[in-house]
Design goal:
alpha/beta, binds guanosine-5'-diphosphate, globular, single chain, binds magnesium ion, 422 residues, 20 strands, binds 6-O-phosphoryl inosine monophosphate
């Protein structure tokens, strides 16, 4: 399979977890390189549902090496609880899971600051997952963060944490929030640090040993292209590089070691949280929600829904260098009579065939639609390209042409067997 970067090509929740699980069959190593437990990656194996937040979805297949890379921000308490959950389901972790010693640590003050800043923003809030992601990456950039390597060094940890708690309590007090107890945070984090110590290593050298062995590595993106801190709809974004470049900096594997980029996208569009979503449509949202679909895997919030936006996905192909497309949730459109696809934007007299950078402009943009006849047939039982209704095949071909990348996978259900290699 070679070294493959998998990214979300929309606003997150494209079905990356499912596709990672499918592609892991051919991979040796799976790596998370950015984000934190703001991610929620769903995998169904038979009737068993797994939701992964920090641990690569590859962990569900036996004998695969899974790595939490240096670019991830790790909430150690969250990670321990995720590990415990997997162990209860008989998933083996020792010898399979490795955590970077240089990944930054998320603390309770990050989560509290995340929440307080949202309150302060009022109607301009981002709609974050309140997992402390922004403040943790903020500390990393400001060079005042603590890393996993500090967490597992008892003496150094106590010393550094004391300073951090003191400083952040002043900030929390200014917000009118409750200060944190050093003793409590210290004891919880020390416990988590002890639990994690055997898994912590230099993941950069580990990955390069794997490359020298000829292993195939799959880089599991979190979030999506338009939540990227540089390329997304700033400030309505997350705080990491969710685009393909993030896989290099977040793992220590150089661009010339990468072979291919797979973009995962839904056959329609969803977004959770605030910020512009040009093709948002209440009818399609009501339809999907009534089917019990499109509720967030991390926060349970109802996702905003809209038509497929090819202006956005074409931009995603450009910034990520997407070679192949995995289009998911095709079955979500099974009952739609006329399917719309956005092929351009209009802001008054001005037309755009690309995404404007100014979110105010993007918020004003009205989509220009092309229409496709719906197939009005259930697709979830299809197992080959030929099983799909001709109108569904035409739709998929059209959106992959508009997105400017090759159709590789068509997904017609959450299960492993509901995956068609095109
Ligand atoms: P991720 O964050 O990109 O991994 O995506 P999420 O897991 O947050 O959300 C995707 C949702 O779609 C999950 O509930 C998946 O089980 C589900 N899913 C993925 N592919 C398909 C598909 O082709 N059809 C259907 N019906 N569900 C899918
Ligand atoms: P996966 O990996 C969808 C969104 C939040 C919010 C914005 C900033 O499952 O696709 P943050 O907590 O990161 O500071 O929130 O980003 N967001 C996601 N939306 N899927 C995700 O991850 C997301 N991770 C963050 O809803 O709008
Ligand atoms: Mg998700």
């Amino acid at each position: 399979m070679a070294n493959t970067i998998l990214v979300g090509a929309q606003w997150g929740d494209e079905g990356k977890g499912k596709i990672i699980d499918v592609l892991t069959e051919q991979a040796d190593v799976v790596v998370r390189t950015q984000g934190g437990n703001n991610a929620g990656h769903t995998v169904f194996i038979g009737k068993q549902k797994y939701v992964l937040h920090l641990i690569p979805s590859g962990i569900l297949r036996k004998k695969k090496i899974c790595v939490i890379g240096n670019g991830v921000v790790v909430d150690p308490v969250g990670l321990v609880s995720e590990m415990e959950g997997l162990r209860k389901l008989n998933i083996k972790l020792s010898g399979n899971l490795f955590v970077s010693e240089t990944a930054h640590v998320v603390f309770p003050y990050h989560r509290e600051l995340d929440a307080q800043r949202e309150v302060l923003k009022g109607k301009n809030k981002i709609g974050t997952t309140k997992r402390g992601i922004g403040p943790a990456y903020g500390d990393k950039a400001a060079r005042v963060g603590l890393r996993v390597i500090d967490l597992i060094n008892e003496e150094r940890f106590a010393e550094k944490l004391a300073i951090k708690i003191k400083e952040n309590n002043e900030v929390l007090k200014a917000f009118g929030a409750k200060p944190l107890s050093f003793k409590e945070v210290h004891s919880t984090y020390r416990k988590a640090g002890d639990y994690l110590r055997p898994f912590v290593t230099n993941t950069v050298t580990l990955l390069h040993q794997a490359i020298r062995r000829g292993d195939d590595i799959l880089f599991e993106g979190a979030q999506g292209t338009f939540l990227d801190i540089d390329h997304g709809t700033y400030p309505y974004v997350t705080s990491s590089n969710t685009t393909s470049g993030g896989a290099c900096t977040g793992s220590g594997v150089a661009p010339n070691r990468m072979d291919r980029v797979v973009g995962v996208l839904k056959a329609y569009t969803t977004r959770v949280g605030e910020g512009p979503l040009p093709t948002e449509n209440a009818e399609i949202a009501d339809m999907l929600h009534a089917m019990g679909r499109e509720f967030g895997a991390t926060t349970g919030r109802a996702r905003r829904c809209g038509w497929f936006d090819s202006v956005a996905t074409r931009h995603a192909t450009m910034v990520n260098g997407i070679d192949d497309l995995a289009i998911t949730n095709i079955d979500g459109l099974d009952t739609v009579e006329t399917i719309k696809v956005c092929i351009g934007y209009r802001d008054g007299k001005k037309k755009y065939d690309y995404m404007p950078n100014d979110v105010e402009v993007l918020s004003r943009c009205v989509p220009v639609y092309a229409e496709f006849p719906g197939w009005l047939t259930p697709t979830d039982k299809a197992r080959s390209w030929k099983d799909l209704p001709p109108k569904a095949r035409s739709y998929l071909k059209a959106i992959s042409e508009l997105t400017d990348a090759k159709l590789f996978i068509a997904s017609i259900g959450p299960g492993r067997d509901q995956t068609i290699f095109v």
